[in-house]
Amino acid sequence: MRIWAVANQKGGVGKTTTVVTLGGLLAERGKRVLVVDLDPHGSLTSWFGLDPDTVQRSVFGLFQNQGRVPEGLPASLVTETGCPGLSLMPASTALATLERRLVGAEGMGLIISRALAQLWDDFDYVILDNTPSLGVLMVNALAAAQHLVIPVQTEFLAIKGLERMLHTLQMIMRSQKNALPYTIVPTLFDRRTQASVKSLNLLRKTYGDSLWRFAIPVDTKFRDASQAGVVPSALDTQTHGVRAYTHLLNDLLAHSEIPRERRHG
Ligand code: ADP
Ligand code: MG
């Protein structure tokens, strides 16, 4: 199993779109993929037609057992998405109540790791979608992940947010043994605007090696897809956004590290 987290402490940068598209493309290649919604807003959950206000079985269930993960619980929270090979562990809005909980208490930071350890033989890839706020949920995602994808909108304010994210990452990694490899992915790139072009250049200059070599373009198909609850498909060759995500996926597969040992099982 390979576990990727998609995170940035800024909203609206394309995190959820990245999770759905990478997940869909992997599933289309015959992989068994689980996407996990760790955002109390539940955009990923809504994408697949579930209502995070009323959903019964969600990630929230994992956090109600004093840091333990009862055998069989994670599997019971997984639902099908209608897209073959792609499964979802939904978020409920109740997750928002966790943000004030202490990470250190009762092994609260390792719950997602432990839950995924139970699903080790069931999925080839797990992609974790994240909330912008740094709390127990994001700490869980960063502890569980083997690779971090940081989407960054190609505009100046978003680059400030990136610095905050990288600082957070360093802070969290200091308390763990292994550094978490990451890839910064420029998103919502519009080659016709100065702001996009200039900020992409700035990103290249500042983050060279950690920056993905291309950018995800603005493509209205993504907004349509999320509203229609459709998973973007590689077969949709008209969609230049999906073509870009296909390159990204290939690069992540080529560059992402040998998986770390199964941990926290
Ligand atoms: P986040 O999860 O970071 O908040 P989303 O993936 O929900 O970001 O994207 C925010 C908005 O931008 C959504 O309306 C989404 O449909 C749209 N969007 C995301 N990526 C693109 C893109 N490459 N081109 C056009 N619109 C996009
Ligand atoms: Mg989102």
UniProtKB/TrEMBL annotation:
PANTHER family: P-LOOP CONTAINING NUCLEOSIDE TRIPHOSPHATE HYDROLASE, PLASMID PARTITIONING PROTEIN-RELATED. Residues 1-180 form the AAA domain. It holds the Pfam family AAA_31. It comes from the Bacteria. This is Cobalamin biosynthesis protein CobQ. InterPro entries: AAA_dom (IPR025669), DNA_Partitioning_ATPase (IPR050678), P-loop_NTPase (IPR027417).
